[in-house]
Design brief:
The chain is an all-alpha fold and about 230 residues long. The chain is about 65% helix and about 0% strand. It is built from 7 helices and no strands. Helix 2 (about 35-85) runs antiparallel to helix 6. The longest helix is centred in the C-terminal third of the chain and has 57 residues, at about 140-195.
């Protein structure tokens, strides 16, 4: 009997449980061993729903962060253009470099959190030091709101990524438990086979062969990624 790879999808594990439970139930000599498999089949639905909800939350959080990132970038680029005008097109002037030590186009390509925190903690306060009549003052509010929204979006995504990682760990532990159940069940089947003279091949009748699993698509079954997505650039 082969072990089910932990990289296999929950659907593959369900198929294996269903096969063994049905086979055990069908043979009076083995039927008493079917109960634990029925229990694992019952537990599967909750695990699958939890995993799906966690993955959905991460995907949606990624989408929100992408939009917030793009929104902040657009305001930053417009502000950078106006700041350059105010600095007399001199990128090396103190008036410009207090906002952007590097070019705005390079600044927004950095990590979103770093961009957002500098915008909130450095750029916006510098804008607010300018006279009310400055053409740069109207950028203070959208830059502040954009930076704070992006930071909040990153925090929300980190939260659901953590929840997804926990769900992934629980799924892995469940899969390990299923493999242990299969191993101990086969050991019990061997004992029954010896006691009743059922032959050496009998215990393996209750587990799908590798050839059957491959024929039904196990090799192409999806795996559940649990690693959090990399931090976006700005």
């Amino acid at each position: 009997m082969r072990q089910i790879p932990l990289s296999s999808s929950l659907l593959v594990f369900l198929d294996e449980l269903e096969f063994t439970e049905a086979a055990l139930t069908a043979d009076p000599a083995a039927a008493e061993l079917a109960g634990p498999f029925e229990e694992e089949i019952g537990a599967w639905a909750h695990l699958f729903q939890r995993q799906r909800a966690a993955r959905r939350a991460v995907v949606r959080a990624d989408a929100v962060v992408a939009v917030l990132d793009g929104t902040l970038d657009r305001v930053t680029v417009r502000f950078g253009g106006q700041a350059l005008v105010e600095a007399g097109q001199d990128r090396k002037s103190a008036a410009f470099r207090k906002f952007f030590p590097t070019a705005p186009s390079e600044f927004i390509r950095g990590a979103l959190r770093k961009q957002s925190e500098r915008t909130r903690d450095v750029i916006v306060p510098e804008i607010l030091k300018l006279p009310e009549s400055s053409a740069l003052r109207p950028f203070a509010d959208p830059l502040s709101k954009g930076a704070k929204a992006a930071i909040a979006g990153l925090a929300a995504r980190a939260k659901v990524q953590g929840e997804a990682a926990t769900a992934g760990t629980d799924v892995t532990e469940w899969k390990e438990g299923v493999n242990r159940l299969r191993t101990t069940t086969r050991a019990e089947l061997v004992k029954i086979a010896v006691a009743q003279g059922l032959g050496r091949a009998w215990p393996d009748l209750f587990f799908r062969s590798a050839e059957t699993a491959r024929a039904e698509g196990e090799a192409d079954a999806p795996v559940e990624p649990v690693d959090p997505a990399p931090a976006p650039t700005g």
